[in-house]
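agent> Task received from the user: take the single chain below, predict its 3D structure, and emit structure tokens. No templates, no multimer pairing.
agent> Plan: (1) validate residues, (2) run structure prediction, (3) serialize to tokens, (4) report one or two observations.
agent> Step 1 OK, no nonstandard residues flagged.
tool_call: predict_structure(input=
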Amino acid sequence: MNALTVGLVYMLVALGLTLIFGIMDILNFAHGEIYMLGAFSTYYFCVVYGLNYFVALFLSIVLIGLLGVVIDKFLLKPVKRELLPSAIVTLGLLMVLQSFAMICFGADEKAVPFPISGIVTIFGVRISATRLMVSLLCIGLVAALFLFIKYTKTGQSMLAIAQDKEIAVSLGINAERTSSLCMAIGCALAAAAGALMGPLLSVHPHMGMSPILKSFIIVVLGGLGSIMGAVISALILGFIDSFVTFFYDASMASILGFTIVILILLIRPAGLMGHVQK
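)
tool_result: status=success, residues=278
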């Protein structure tokens, strides 16, 4: 159950990263800091302003999603969303957001209060109600993303741009608006992951480093731009992390995760669900 929770949170972060790369062809190195901002905004909404956790979660997702639109319009659009310039811009944004968090929030670890308390027993397995809530909300968000992409006109437009941007634009799809929406959704997913992990882990300015490294592993393992590949890889990595950390330690779990990526790339360079270019 712990592995499932970890895998689902990894999935949210990695799906946002995959969505941005698959549609915009941008490697967002600041994605971990977006995750961190989601956790901090939830903390301040709950602890400082006294809002209900679920209200704070919703506000964090909306605000960080809007931040994604701002990042796209004022930082990525001026460099024409090209891969290398965008990577440099987001790498700089990573440093700015991390320094901003250190100055504004301080280096001390903070804790988001548990939204619900108690223990739930499922098929003989005892799990905290908060961890179960996090898992269910993650599943709901992932399902909502899949339904949005598959059954809405906007979602289909995003897929069309991911497959062939020039043809999609020639058919009348607004690439600018779709790219901004994609960035908003990607950042909102990362913020949701940070907000959901706030009650389970401590909140601090450097908390985004591990999730972004794990997300890059997931994206490469699943296949660049493959949403289903990201889902499968996130669950695999979540189970590896939990079980190896329990029986050995966290360092061995990280080593094993990177080793699996290397082996997969040697055997199948395109990843588990990626398409091999001929």
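agent> Step 4: summary for the user.
The longest helix spans residues 53-76.
agent> Done.
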